[in-house]
Structures are given as C-alpha cells and as structure tokens.
Amino acid sequence: MKKKWYWLVCIALPLAVGGLAGWLTADDFDQYQQLLKPPGSPPGWIFPIAWTILYLAMGLASGLVLASGAPAEQVFSGIRLYILQLGVNFLWPILFFGLELYLVAFLWLVLLLLLVSLLILWFYRILPLAGYLLVPYWGWLLFAGYLNLGVYLLN
Known about the structure:
The chain has 7 helices and no strands. The protein is mainly α. It has a single domain, classed as Up-down Bundle (Ferritin), CATH 1.20.1260. It is elongated, with a radius of gyration of 16 Å. The mean pLDDT is 94.
C-alpha cells in the first residue's frame, strides 16, 4: 500500500502545481487568444493536454529517481533541482498570462530551460529512463520559448 501512495504523490505534485498555475491564470487566457501569435501557434485546447502529459512524465521521472536506489545525496540533490524547476515552471504562466510581462516571461523561460537541461542530465546519471522522460518537456519548453518570444515581438 505504501508504494501506491508514494507514486500517487510523485504524480500528483506536478499535476497540482500545473493545475494551480492554470487555475490562477484561467481568466487571463482569453487575453492570449486576442494576441498576435507567431506562425505554427497551436489552438488553445492543445496546451492543457500537452501540459498534462508533460506533468505526468515529470512525476513518473521523479518517482523513478526516488525509487532508484542511488545514493541518497545524489537522489535528493536531483529532487531539489526538480522542485526548483517546478517552482520556476509555476511562475511562468503568472508572468506571461497574469501579468502580461512577455519579455520577462521569455527570460524566465530561458532560466527554466537551463534548469530542465541540468535536471535531464542529473536524472539521466541516476537512471537514464528518468532523464529520457524529461526530454519531451524540454522540447515543449523550446517551442513555448518560440511562442513566447513571438508574442513579445508581435505585440
């Protein structure tokens, strides 16, 4: 039974962080729909689906790292980095949607990309699958950076 709760917490944490950020900025998403966007911008309904999948992968990766049996110091350093990037991730939609600080949000996203790059490498060293699970997240952040910068430049 303990294992079920453990995995539930690992999966629920990133979903809760993302859900809270989404809830806090839900009313502001309508403003985004009115903005000029760069070519290739997906329809709005794609974002919650993509983020849900990415948050699930993050939770699975963190759970795999915690269950890896790697040295505790290495695991907890990785988890601290994971929580830091989750906090940075949480603040991005507030900067972008809530406060409409598009350039600041872009720079914040660059920070997030750097943190996730480090996290992928850290998790990979502990358990390669955990690192691989974060690669789609990194790719989506690159795409989000393109969209964010495009919105800044066009508006």
